[in-house]
Amino acid sequence: MSGTIDRRGLAVTAGTFVIWGVVPVYWHLLKAVPAMQIMAHRVVWSALLVVGWLLLRDGLGWLRRLVAQPRALPALALSAVLIAFNWGLYIWAVNAGHVVETSLGYFINPLVNVLLGVLVLHERLRRLQWIAVGCAAAGVAWLTWQGGSPPWIALGLAGSFGLYGLVRKLVAVDPVAGLGLESLYLFLPALAWVLWAEAGHGGGFAAGWSLGTDLLLVFGGVVTAVPLIGFAYGVRRIPLSVVGLMQYIAPTLQLLLGVWFFHEPFDAARALGFGAIWLGLAIYAGEGLWRSRQRPA
């Protein structure tokens, strides 16, 4: 196997993580809109984009292939609920001033994936992987003690996205086609919420809000769908060990935005908790990279 890396795949994957890293600024521009309405618009417009793209690319072939896998239908319904919860919690947290804690959620997500592998898939961890998980657990325990309660936002984001990844791992479908069916599952409930809000329950699309706000809500579908499609494209073209290291681009940018752009507190006590988690991630990523280089080509 060649040691070269597909440059286009690398660039697309890096761009995907950069978009996910700076997207808090985008949702912050919609701060005047209730989080559930942002979420509903996000689902509606991204569903139209993703399903429209799939229909143009493949007609109804993508849907027929999914329907031919009966096991995939309930699994993707569950993954749709999980990703909707993750998106909704993330948007609410950003606009409620918890960007730093959202970054924590995506820092600990890889180690949550490891624990799910042990508990659900009965995978066995190597010694350094257990040490990495222990460091992350110590960091979360420290942040819980310092804050007086667990970092529920971070744990909710990491847990929901970890479970989402587990479900998608257990059902073998094309990533974009799977996203298309998830979008179909969520479309009608999201559209119903938008219409209910517009019927005198706080909605302002095309009437109460500014044109700029309306356009941002519509373009939120692009902000949602394009990185997911780009990730599905890039991850097939570069080694997973590289993807594993690049995934820390997004929470790193989120943390920097939380501290320097949104001016959220990040004192020494909080930095110590993050430091323990970063140490665990460094051990985990370093061990995985070393193992991948030891394997024969």
Automatic annotation (TrEMBL):
Primary location recorded for the protein, binned into one broad class: membrane
Q: Which UniProt keywords apply?
A: Cell membrane, Membrane, Transmembrane, Transmembrane helix, Transport
The membrane-spanning stretches of this chain are 9-27, 39-60, 72-92, 104-121, 128-145, 151-167, 179-196, 216-235, 242-262, 268-286
| Membrane topology (UniProt) | Multi-pass membrane protein
Write out the GO cellular component annotations: plasma membrane
Protein's cellular compartments: Cell membrane
**InterPro entries noted in UniProt:** EamA_dom (IPR000620), EmrE-like (IPR037185), RarD (IPR004626)
Where in the sequence is the signal peptide annotated? Answer: none
Which Pfam families did the record assign?
EamA
* Limits of the EamA domain: 9-144, 154-283
Record-stated family: Belongs to the EamA transporter family.
UniProt-listed NCBIfam families: rarD
* Annotated protein name in UniProt: Protein RarD
